[in-house]
Structure formats: structure tokens, C-alpha cells
Design goal:
about 75% helix; transmembrane; Multidrug transporter
């Protein structure tokens, strides 16, 4: 574990040095992120012109949910988005051989080698939106709420990583598709809204098959003080189960990989 912590530190340091060469872009990116959050809040406000609830959630609740969505999206754009599409390029060009010959885990290396540090701005804005939503609701979370929120948020991030990793691992067989990320993006966008807004088979799929509802709804309910231990335990269990599946799928795909000469 110390080796991978040291590697992660070196990845952060090297990417920070690279991004420091373009400091002027930082302010532009910060303004762009702030504009995006403002536009999202305006969109939510429009939904509430026709009623005081959306899928059973109040306006303040949805602001908290939107904050959780932005925190997760910021973390995804920080660590996963710079790396996942590169896996397809590695398989297509045969450069994955260079990754697999290094004395570290290949799945770790293809997942976290490149980091977009400036995307952490979205994480900060997301937490700010959560604080604003809680202020609108007039609710101060307890330390138990904060602890369950931290655990379920980490579980959500693990679940997102596992789902995207499994999707990109299919690149070992479908290398002619230019970018599989759009499939993940379409799925993740459904996590922006309360699970109650979906009906019928779509709600079943987003709850039990591809648990988008778990990704954002569970942490949001936790920080709003509406959590229960069974749901939190289920979120952690689902995340670890999908991570195990992603790991197994990765190893299975490597057996089918023939390298640059294949």
C-alpha cells in the first residue's frame, strides 16, 4: 500500500507541475465551473415553478442532491476521465504492453496515471452547494450524519469507478468504437435527479441493475439526516461487489489480450 500511496503522490506532483505552466487557465476554469453550477441551480428552480416537490424531494433537498452530484462529477473528472479513454488507445495501439511490463498493478496504473487537478474546483463548488442547500433547509447535520455521508460518498465513488472500469475494459474486444465514455456519461446524468422522478422499469433498472440512484441519493439522504444503517450498509456492499467484478473482468480481459503483435 505504501508503494501505491507514494506513486499516487508522485502522479499528483507531476501533474501539478504541468498544470502550473498554465495558471491563466485556472481562473477561466473556476469561472466556468461557477457558471455551470449557477445554471444547474437555475434549472432546478424552473422545475419547482410547477410544484413544491420533485420526486418527493423539496427544493432544498434537491440542491443538496445536486451538490453531491457535482462533488462526484468533480472527482470523476479529476481522476477517472483523464485516464479511462486512454485505455482504449493503449489497446488499439498496442502500448498497453509498456504498462503491463511495469512492476506495479496495471489496473491501478491505467486508472490514475493522469490527473486533472483543476477539476477539484468542481468538488469545492459541490460542497458549497451542499452547504447552501442545508442552509436553505435550516438543518445542521450531526456528526453521525457526516460520518455516514463520508462512507456512502466513498462507496459511490468506488461504484462509479467499478462501473466505468468494466465498461472501458470491453475495449479489449470492441476496439473499433472511438469512445465508450459517452455511454458512461449518459448513465451518470441520470444520477442528477431524485430516484422518485423515474417510473416503472426505468426506476427498477436505475435502482437495482445500474444503481445510479444509489450513487447520489444515498449520500444526499445521509447528510440530510434521513439515512438508515441498512441502506448505508447496502451501498457499501454494492460498491465492493462491483469493484470485485471489475477486478475479475479486468483479469479476464488481460487473458484475451494478445499485445501489440496480436
Amino acid at each position: 500500500m505504501r508503494l501505491y500511496a507514494r506513486l499516487l503522490y508522485e502522479f499528483v506532483r507531476s501533474n501539478a507541475m504541468e498544470e502550473m505552466q498554465y495558471r491563466s487557465e485556472f481562473l477561466g476554469n473556476a469561472l466556468s465551473g461557477l457558471f455551470g453550477v449557477g445554471l444547474a441551480v437555475l434549472t432546478v428552480r424552473i422545475f419547482f415553478y410547477r410544484g413544491d416537490r420533485l420526486g418527493g424531494w423539496t427544493y432544498a433537498d434537491v440542491l443538496v442532491l445536486l451538490g453531491v452530484f457535482n462533488v462526484l462529477r468533480g472527482l470523476i473528472d479529476f481522476a477517472l476521465r483523464p485516464n479511462m479513454p486512454r485505455l482504449l488507445e493503449h489497446v488499439r495501439k498496442g502500448t498497453l504492453d509498456f504498462v503491463l511490463t511495469k512492476p506495479v498493478d496495471g489496473m491501478f496504473l491505467v486508472s490514475f496515471r493522469h490527473l486533472a487537478l483543476w477539476r477539484l474546483i468542481d468538488v469545492a463548488l459541490g460542497f458549497g452547494l451542499i452547504a447552501y442547500g442545508l442552509a436553505q433547509k435550516g438543518y445542521v447535520p450531526t456528526w453521525q450524519d457526516a460520518a455516514v455521508f463520508a462512507v456512502t460518498l466513498a462507496a459511490s465513488l468506488i461504484l462509479v469507478y467499478a462501473l466505468w472500469m468494466m465498461l472501458m475494459t470491453t475495449a479489449f474486444w470492441v476496439i473499433r468504437i472511438d469512445d465508450l465514455s459517452f455511454v458512461f456519461d449518459s448513465f451518470f446524468e441520470t444520477a442528477r435527479f431524485p430516484a422518485g422522478t423515474y417510473r416503472g422499469w426505468l426506476r427498477f433498472v436505475l435502482t437495482y441493475v445500474l444503481p445510479a440512484a444509489v450513487i447520489t441519493n444515498t449520500p444526499a439522504l445521509a447528510i440530510l439526516g434521513q439515512w438508515n444503517a441498512r441502506a448505508a450498509a447496502a451501498a457499501v456492499t454494492v460498491a465492493l461487489a462491483f469493484l470485485w467484478l471489475a477486478r475479475r473482468f479486468w483479469r479476464y480481459a488481460l487473458k484475451a489480450y494478445t499485445g501489440a503483435s496480436g
